[in-house]
């Protein structure tokens, strides 16, 4: 089955009472215990499990080709569960341009709990290889990266991980499984901020972790999920499940529009540079070709001719792009990334990060043309 069909199948209601076609919302925090002490379908208490969360998790596992999935209240709670499933003294390799809050979580929280980490350029296999230590337990990949859209070779890093017995985790938020399937490429763990394309409408926060054929890791993640309790509410789960149903069509259309916008902006005289993995000018174009499918995602970064103030002016002048952080919604967004990242940022000052929504390409191009 194609993913479009699979996702509709996987999000169908399971409710034996009224047999509804779409999934009802189960707000109950607690569930009846049967006379013999058992629980129907193992539902005991909503932090432990809930029908809306279980449906979402089954759909997520199906979509990424995993064997188990764990939903969380945010993408950060999801990455937290992965770090928390490691042990004091373990070493983690992070991309030098990892999502900046993941870096902060590691630096400010997990180092106090005994994790060690090194950051490396994830496009440089030699750099990754030489960062490996005896206690390295996890290599973290984020591809395309934020905001420079650097591409990491998931197959090659997964191979390296296998040789050294190191888990490979991929933040697949930007690509979604429509464009990239890390578990098929050899990775062990996939993580998403479901706040982005999965929810798809900028109205729900969420995260998830998906693993394949690793019962020990699954058990540790389940412990963190059920005991630490950073779980999504039933309504959050319901909203993300609803978002998943239209994920394939939204993402395909948004990515096509982003590709066309990237091509248009690349040849514009007022634009210095465009970062988009589908462009031949992209430094890792070949790697993107070899591991991304159907398209290259709906995120791009644009360096404007001029300084940071000119870039901020352009962002403010665009009418169809809201000046806001985040991504993956139906509405286009633009952001001066350096201002968001603060004083430690290495992002060029003339760079704008763009999340392309579901508007028509002609209107988006006209907006840029006018403001440039
Ligand atoms: C947004 C984002 C996160 C964090 O997710 P939240 O849902 O905001 O907690 C992590 N990784 C990437 C790539 C993101 O875009």
Could you name the key traits of this structure?
372 residues; alpha/beta; 7-stranded mixed beta sheet; 5-stranded mixed beta sheet; 12 strands; 39% helix; globular; binds pyridoxal-5'-phosphate
Report on the structure:
- The protein is an alpha/beta fold and 372 residues long.
- The chain contains 13 helices and twelve strands.
- The chain has helices spanning 3-10, 51-64, 75-84, 100-109, 125-131, 154-164, 176-179, 215-228, 234-266, 285-291, 308-317, 337-341, 361-371, and strands at 68-72, 91-95, 116-120, 136-142, 167-171, 189-193, 207-211, 271-275, 299-304, 322-323, 333-336, 351-355.
- The strands form two sheets. It has a seven-stranded mixed beta sheet with strand order 1-7-6-5-4-2-3, sandwiched between helices. A five-stranded mixed beta sheet has the order 8-9-12-11-10.
- α6 (154-164) links the parallel β4 (136-142) and β5 (167-171).
- The longest helix has 33 residues, at 234-266.
- It is globular.
- Pyridoxal-5'-phosphate binds at residues 74-76, 99, 142, 146, 171, 173-174, 193, 195-196, 205, 207.
Rg over CA atoms, rounded to whole Å, is 21 Å
Shape: globular
Bound molecules: pyridoxal-5'-phosphate
Residue share in helices?
A: 25-40%
How do you describe this structure in short?
The protein is α/β, with parallel strands linked by helices and 372 residues long.
């Amino acid at each position: 089955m194609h993913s479009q069909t699979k996702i509709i199948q996987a999000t169908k209601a399971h409710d034996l009472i009224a047999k509804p076609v779409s999934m009802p919302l189960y707000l109950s925090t607690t569930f009846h215990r049967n006379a013999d002490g058992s629980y129907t379908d193992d539902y005991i208490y909503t932090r432990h499990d809930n029908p809306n969360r279980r449906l979402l998790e089954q759909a997520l596992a199906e979509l990424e080709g995993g064997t188990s999935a764990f939903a969380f209240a945010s993408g950060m709670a999801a990455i937290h569960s992965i770090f928390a499933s490691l042990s004091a003294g373990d070493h983690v390799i992070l991309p030098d341009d990892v999502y900046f809050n993941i870096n902060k979580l590691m630096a400010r929280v997990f180092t106090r709990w005994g994790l060690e980490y090194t950051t490396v350029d994830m496009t440089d296999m030699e750099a990754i290889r030489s960062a490996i230590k005896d206690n390295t337990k996890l290599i973290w990949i984020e591809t395309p990266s934020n905001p420079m859209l650097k591409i990491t070779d998931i197959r090659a890093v997964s191979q390296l991980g296998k040789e050294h017995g190191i888990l490979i985790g991929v933040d697949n938020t930007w690509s979604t499984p429509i464009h990239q399937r890390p578990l098929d490429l050899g990775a062990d763990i996939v993580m998403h901020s479901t706040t982005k394309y999965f929810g798809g409408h900028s109205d729900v926060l969420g995260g998830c972790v998906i693993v394949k054929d690793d019962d020990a890791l699954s058990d540790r993640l389940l412990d963190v999920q059920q005991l630490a309790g950073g779980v999504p509410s039933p309504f959050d789960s319901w909203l993300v499940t609803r978002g998943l149903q239209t994920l394939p069509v939204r993402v395909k259309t948004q990515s096509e529009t982003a590709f066309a916008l990237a091509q248009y902006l690349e040849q514009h005289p007022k634009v210095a540079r465009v970062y988009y993995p589908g462009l031949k000018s992209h430094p890792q174009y070949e790697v993107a070709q070899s591991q991304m499918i159907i398209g290259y995602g709906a995120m791009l970064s644009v360096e404007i001719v001029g300084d940071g103030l000119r870039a901020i002016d352009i962002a403010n002048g665009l009418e169809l792009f809201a000046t806001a952080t985040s991504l993956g919604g139906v509405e286009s967004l633009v952001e001066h990334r350096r201002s968001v990242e603060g004083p430690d940022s290495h992002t060029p000052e003339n760079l704008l990060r763009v999340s392309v929504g579901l508007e028509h390409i002609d209107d988006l191009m006209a907006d840029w043309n006018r403001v440039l």
